[in-house]
Amino acid sequence: MGAATFLALALSAPAAVAAQEEARDEEWRTDFTRHTVPLEEIVSGGPPKDGIPALDDPRFVSVEQADEWLDDREPVLVVEHGGDARAYPYQILIYHEIVNDVVGGRPLAVTYCPLCNTALVFERRHDDRLLDFGTTGRLRHSDLVMYDRATESWWQQATGEAIVGELAGDRLTPYPAQTLSWRAFRRAHPDARVLSRRTGHVRPYGRNPYQGYDTRRGPIQSLFGLLADDRLPAMERVAAVTLGETPVAYPFSSLEESLVVNDEIQGTPVVVFWAPGTASALDRGLVAEGRDVGASGVFRRSLGDRVLSFEAAAPGFFRDRDTGSTWDLTGRAVEGPLSGQRLSPLPHGDYLWFAWAAFKPDTDVRR
After folding, report:
1. This model's pTM is above 0.85
2. Is residue 253 located within the same domain as residue 356?
């Protein structure tokens, strides 16, 4: 779906709502009497239920094999658990949006909504159920609405909250993940595994179906009245994190200047790293040719009983002022007295500002 097509669909929202209401009884087992948001806020995104197919039995290849078709600057979503590190290239996620996977023995849902640039990972084990997820074909505030196949409850991808159905009001547990350039991932994890293009589906992987979407002239400027929060441009990327009840956003335009932010959120010392070298997946016709938008990492800056303070070092690297050790964008110490140590990552995302503000209007913007 190109940006122009999305614009046309979104502007016809009333008709889309009527059409989806007519189809509910036949298409879904969902309990629509239970919902935490007005149902009229949920609109058709164009494709039908599972029209964007989730990947349920993902295949993986080696870093060496993936290097044949991934460009140095291409964005990949990185997930690690139990010594198992995996990269999910955006050029594949953009066509599937959900990967139901098990990483290091941990069942996880790897998700991506191109319209909000929200690449987020959630635990699939919820209460006493192991959930698998698919796409509803619906959007709310431009964001992917997922469903679980056990109860067919509908879930908001940007927040991990069930908004319709039996599980309405429940929340999935977020799992830390990070967007990196292929080059940065390859350097940090030479022996990792990479989601394969052999998905069982025929898609033009590597091409961006949303060409020009995340520019200042993109279609979102006209949609849904989401631009009431004008503290930042709608398409500004932010490193966004919530600790406790405090949502915080760090604009990329500020991070590009400082490269490092030593901060504290609800008494927790945190550090935000930023580095150039990662392409936008939503800019040019080819993902590999997208403009450089950079990437971020958000970590606890405490290591044992010690709270570290950081500064920028060489491009893509950072130095703690306490020991002089050098750290990379993944939060690993690669040189110095703390070499081999790692900061604890916090669940965060590189959101488009309009999307974060729509779901977290009380966010604290820190420049």
Report:
1. yes
2. yes
